[in-house]
Amino acid sequence: MNKSEEMFDIYDEKMNWLGQAPRSEVHAKGLWHATFQCWIVSLESEEPALLLQLRHPDKDLFPNLLDISCAGHLAAGETVQDGAREMKEELGLSVDFNELVPCGLFAEEDLMSDHLIDREFCHVFIYRCDQSLDKYVLQADEVTGLFKVSAAGLERLVHGEIEELKAEGYRTGGNGQLEETSLLVSLNDLVPHPAAYYDLVFQTLRKHALFV
């Protein structure tokens, strides 16, 4: 184990705590661990939009794919409340945990390869933020872009009702500066989450009148 390697709390499939293990072992052996995930919804325009981050090309999991607005592993000993720090680290947002709307817990398993299995207990939240995309401060070694998509369009995309969805936002250019751009996003461009995961998010958005 590398001395600087992150340590995670590990669990059994019923979320009973088993101990701690380094990140590489957790993913190599497919050990259950906890993550903090927050979807940012923007009502800046008339139609509700969700923010997607573009993952850095050097990430060990799902490089160069679009994913949850903000997400990160909970380190050993951290609580779910501590996860709110990810908002500041990845996006430059100072957010109090009590401002987040909880969606619930989602257990997700991704078999990446024979040597990489990701089993996460995802603590999922929503945060409303109507600021423009160019106001976000992206963590350079984690996030290389931030895009806005129609919430209704994303729901249709993940349920196979449409094949592409327009995303507008910013990505890091060759000079390290954010450049305004747009993309046509298909399911292949997204980190693969099951439809049931997205349904948890959309149900919560509707419950809190953030999405019709």
UniProtKB/TrEMBL annotation:
PROSITE patterns in the cross-refs: NUDIX
Nudix hydrolase domain ranges (all copies): 31-171
Superkingdom of the organism of origin: Bacteria
Protein known as: NUDIX domain-containing protein
Top-level taxonomy: Bacteria, Bacillati, Bacillota, Bacilli, Bacillales
